[in-house]
């Protein structure tokens, strides 16, 4: 079993893969390994609804990134992930930073299946999600700078 890796927020990286969306939402990869991932999203007024609560779309973005990370947790730098399906159930609202945790429940030959949840800083359950993801092996960067 691989060790859990902890990563501090590094601009547009999420668990060592470039992802500009990470920077836009302030996502911070907290841990990855053993088919699990944990990602934190700060409270930002720009991503709230008309009542000042974290918008459902922001929850969905956080869950998509976290479930996808769990699916590649066995070899984080080797794979990118394509979302095939994502279902989110919204249970409560939040006006704080939130943390998503996810587990890859099954990794098949081409598709992986994950589930996850979002909690606020006090541990209150806010959302649940399931998703189907396709792993895509990343190609090594060309050291010549030509693609």
From TrEMBL:
Record domain Thioesterase: where: 52-126
Entry keyword set: Hydrolase
Presence of keyword Cell membrane: no
MF-aspect GO terms: fatty acyl-CoA hydrolase activity
Domain of life, source organism: Bacteria
Pfam families tied to this protein: 4HBT (PF03061)
Family annotation (SUPFAM superfamilies): Thioesterase/thiol ester dehydrase-isomerase (SSF54637)
InterPro entries reported in the protein's UniProt record: ACOT13, HotDog_dom_sf, PAAI_dom, Thioestr_dom
CDD domains: PaaI_thioesterase
Family named by the database record: Belongs to the thioesterase PaaI family.
UniProt-recorded name of the protein: Uncharacterized domain 1-containing protein
């Amino acid at each position: 079993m691989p060790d859990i890796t902890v990563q501090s927020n590094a601009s547009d990286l999420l668990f060592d893969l470039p992802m500009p969306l990470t920077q836009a939402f302030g996502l911070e990869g907290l841990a990855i390994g053993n088919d699990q991932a944990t990602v934190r999203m700060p409270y930002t007024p720009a991503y709230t609804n008309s009542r000042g609560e974290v918008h459902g779309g922001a929850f969905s973005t956080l869950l998509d990134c976290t479930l996808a990370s769990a699916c590649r947790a066995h070899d984080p730098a080797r794979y990118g992930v394509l979302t095939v399906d994502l279902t989110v159930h919204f249970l409560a609202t939040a006006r704080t930073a939130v943390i998503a945790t996810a587990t890859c429940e099954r990794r098949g030959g081409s598709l992986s299946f994950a589930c996850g949840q979002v909690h606020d800083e006090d541990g209150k359950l806010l959302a649940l999600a399931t998703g189907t993801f396709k792993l895509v092996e990343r190609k090594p960067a060309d050291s010549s700078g030509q693609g």
